[in-house]
């Protein structure tokens, strides 16, 4: 194998060869040729910034520690970057290594080379397009700006259209802060819409579209705090650099637990990373590969408020609430079998009412058909909130949804039903018994639950506490964190925080 390394190295170097962008304010004539990580021992961040991961530190920073750093001033970032770290081109090279390591986690050496080369060619082509667009943009200074205190950056235009974060937007604005919304665009769409601005420093051409879109967002809105929600975006390192140049902060808010094995959760290049609770923190710490460093803040869910403080339900109403999965998962055989299992069970048990709460992006065609055929099956309206859905039910059926955690806040016992081969990432079995894979087991667990309903309500509340800090105060605590950052206060005063270094 060692004999073939020079030729492989040369092949990838040719594909990754790209000059520092000449449109940048500090562009030079140098050529940047990053190498795959299997040939370079350099880590994603300097070695001195790393520490062991895999468990919660014994002495966290924050309200549970006496080692506070004092108030956060505008001139002091939570993690000071070295001169090399502050280089946009250097971060791009680190990003190359990170992408290479992600490929090597799943593919052999030849397959990784081919995929790296393919991705580099695509990024290079988009970079050429971005360079042309910037050439027509004139002075590189935005004439139309929308200054704000906080910019909420949605993961995509379609996510922004769902308006799921209106509860957070209203809460921040109620505190008197000027909040603007924008959507993160793909590199191609950013070029098409002209949402590009020459980055402050030279970057390789393959990352120009990412860096230029990040620079455009920061220059257009000039936020003091940018709230990001997209996991795994390659825009993230450049957003953080552009914000740091203005003494602004990048806050990433998890919109779900971080328990999944998704590679997107390896992106960790934020000033602050707000997560649901301790289970999410441990999952992040145990990831073998992380890019960048962040300060994790145990925050709870910004979608959780006092509307989840519901009275205990009467089990005699015999109403089951099924929490649907996303539209991509609904097409998979395991989830389809689970839907069929539940529908067939409802058909055999007309004494029970079964309600279905669809995922916000799902059209719920399966359950729309089931509701037309069966009198005891109902499809909840898209305008029905999760708390309103819980108020109508005595038991929640969770397949693989983060909404199952909120059921504990509402005091609704959970039965975990999944006919597929998924790992129980939420640890349902620890609180509610074994996973249900057939109708007979569902009937057995439901009968046991109804015989001691109050006990199962308490188990549901413990389940929520396991995954969520602050319970139904998640929205209030999230708003408080944003307020602290805007006022220049150190989050350690009011929150439990942990340093999360790079890994891999």
Which features characterize this protein?
single chain, 504 residues, alpha/beta, Rossmann fold, 2 domains, five-stranded parallel beta sheet, 15 strands, 40% helix, 12% strand
Structure description:
The protein is α/β, with parallel strands linked by helices. It has 2 domains: 2-14 and 25-43 and 83-304 and 489-500, no CATH class; 306-467, Glycogen Phosphorylase B (Rossmann fold), CATH 3.40.50. Helices cover 40% and strands 12% of the residues. The chain has helices spanning 5-16, 88-106, 109-135, 157-162, 166-174, 187-193, 208-221, 236-244, 278-285, 327-330, 333-348, 365-373, 386-391, 403-409, 428-432, 439-451, 453-467, 474-487; strands at residues 18-19, 31-32, 61-62, 150-154, 179-183, 225-228, 249-253, 272-275, 294-298, 319-323, 353-357, 377-379, 395-398, 414-416, 496-500. The strands form 3 sheets. It has an 8-stranded mixed β-sheet with strand order 3-15-9-8-7-6-4-5, with helices on both faces. Helix 1 runs parallel beside helix 3 (109-135), helix 2 runs antiparallel to helix 3 and helix 5 crosses helix 18. The chain starts with a helix and ends with a strand. This is Capsule biosynthesis protein.
């Amino acid at each position: 194998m060692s004999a073939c390394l020079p030729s492989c190295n040369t092949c990838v170097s040719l594909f990754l060869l790209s000059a520092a962008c000449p449109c940048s304010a500090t562009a030079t004539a140098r050529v940047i040729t990053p190498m795959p990580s299997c040939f370079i021992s350099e880590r994603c961040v300097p070695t001195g910034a790393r520490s062991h991961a895999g468990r919660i530190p014994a002495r966290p920073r924050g309200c549970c520690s006496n080692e506070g750093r004092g108030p956060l001033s505008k001139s002091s970032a939570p993690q000071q970057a070295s001169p090399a770290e502050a280089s946009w081109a250097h971060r791009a090279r680190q990003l190359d290594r990170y992408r290479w390591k992600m490929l090597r986690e799943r593919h052999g050496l030849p397959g990784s080379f081919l995929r790296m080369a393919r991705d580099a060619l695509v990024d290079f082509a988009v970079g050429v397009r971005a360079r042309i667009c910037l050439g027509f943009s004139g002075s590189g200074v935005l004439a139309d700006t929308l200054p704000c205190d906080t910019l909420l950056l949605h993961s995509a235009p379609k996510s922004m259209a769902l308006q799921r974060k209106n509860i957070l937007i209203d809460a921040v604005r109620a505190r008197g802060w000027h909040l603007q919304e924008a959507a993160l665009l793909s590199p191609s769409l950013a070029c098409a819409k002209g949402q590009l601005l020459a980055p402050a420093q030279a970057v390789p051409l393959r990352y120009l579209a990412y860096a230029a879109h990040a620079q455009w967002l920061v220059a257009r809105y000039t936020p003091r705090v940018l709230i990001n929600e997209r996991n795994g975006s390659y825009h993230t390192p450049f957003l953080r650099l552009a914000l740091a140049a203005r003494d602004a902060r990048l806050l990433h808010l998890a919109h779900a637990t971080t328990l999944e094995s998704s590679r997107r959760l390896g992106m960790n290049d934020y000033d602050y990373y707000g997560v649901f609770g301790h289970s999410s923190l441990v999952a992040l710490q145990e990831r073998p590969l992380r890019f960048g460093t962040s300060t994790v803040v145990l925050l709870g869910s910004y979608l959780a408020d006092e509307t989840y403080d519901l009275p205990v339900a009467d089990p005699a109403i015999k109403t089951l609430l099924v929490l649907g999965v996303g539209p991509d998962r609904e097409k998979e055989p395991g989830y389809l079998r689970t839907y069929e299992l539940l529908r067939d069970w409802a058909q055999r048990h007309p004494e029970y009412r079964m309600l279905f709460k669809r995922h916000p992006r799902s059209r719920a065609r399966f359950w729309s058909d089931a509701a037309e055929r069966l009198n005891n099956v109902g499809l909840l309206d898209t305008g029905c909130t999760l708390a309103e859905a819980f108020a109508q039910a005595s038991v929640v059926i969770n397949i693989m949804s983060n909404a199952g955690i909120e059921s504990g806040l509402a005091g609704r016992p959970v039965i975990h039903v999944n006919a597929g081969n998924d790992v129980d990432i939420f640890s349902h079995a620890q609180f509610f018994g074994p996973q249900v894979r057939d109708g007979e087991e569902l009937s057995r667990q439901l009968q046991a639950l109804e015989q001691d309903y109050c006990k199962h309500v308490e188990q549901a509340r413990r389940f929520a506490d396991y995954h969520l800090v602050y319970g139904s105060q998640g929205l209030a605590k999230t708003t408080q964190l944003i307020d602290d950052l805007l006022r220049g206060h150190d989050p350690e005063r009011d929150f439990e925080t942990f340093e999360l270094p790079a890994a891999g």
